[in-house]
Specification:
mainly alpha; 2 strands; nucleus; Restriction of telomere capping protein 4
Length: 227
């Protein structure tokens, strides 16, 4: 069989048909620090420390596999982060309604089921909270195409609106504060932001939240957050 000519020189996977300017920049950087190391399945293979090519390989997989869907569904690639804190604050009444009647929230019911399955009894409550925080739930939920930057801004806005004062008189849930913010209020907020952005239903927004998670992490990692 003929060897494909458009393979990544580092992971040997197919590259996107069209590369973005950022992908080309990363490719040039790696080309300057790598050396030819042909293999039978990829004559263009090059040798470089794996950690140095991770961002490039993640990026080209995203552009090959996810970017076409992002373009087709009109996911914002450059969200307005300057207005995001204010947009989250505008959701206060909706979020307060969730705290008052949490059993109407899909995310609350999911978090409650996960948490209670680990707690079992009040004696195990603190242990369960610690275990629950170790679960990579962010990988399942995140902040959609807003990435880490959007997650951080949204989380700070929620902390501002609903501080951990120990009482929370209008809250009808016994979930620990951190879990309530991360597992319930944050995804509820992101879902509504996505609905606003794309004028879609909540079910469609939930689907896009999951589908666009990796897309957002690559485009908007926390290291890009302005000081």
């Amino acid at each position: 069989d003929a060897i494909p000519c458009n393979l990544c020189p580092y992971c040997d996977e197919p590259l996107p048909a069209v590369s973005s300017a950022e992908l080309l920049r990363l490719a040039q950087f790696l080309d300057n620090i790598s050396s030819p190391s042909p293999v039978p399945e990829n004559p263009a293979h090059r040798d470089v420390n794996l950690w140095k090519c991770q961002d490039y390989c993640k990026r080209h997989r995203m552009e090959r596999d996810i970017l076409p869907l992002a373009l087709a569904q009109h996911w914002p690639q450059s969200p307005d982060f300057k207005s995001l804190f204010r947009r989250v604050l505008a959701k206060r009444a909706l979020l307060q309604a969730i705290l008052t009647a949490p059993d109407d929230s899909f995310f609350y019911l999911t978090a409650k089921m996960e948490f209670t399955s680990r707690s079992g009894s009040s004696r195990q409550f603190l242990s369960a909270a610690g275990q629950f925080q170790q679960v990579d739930r962010l990988g399942k939920i995140g902040a959609a195409y807003y990435g880490d930057i959007g997650w951080e801004i949204t989380h700070k806005a929620l902390q501002f609106m609903f501080p951990d004062d120990g009482s929370r008189p209008q809250c009808k849930t016994a979930l620990p504060y951190d879990l309530l913010l991360r597992e319930v209020l944050l995804p509820e907020t992101v879902m509504r932001l996505v609905q606003d952005d794309l004028a879609i239903t909540d079910m469609a927004a939930k689907s896009i939240m999951q589908a666009s998670h990796g897309f957002g992490l690559i485009l908007h990692p926390s290291s890009d957050h302005p000081d």
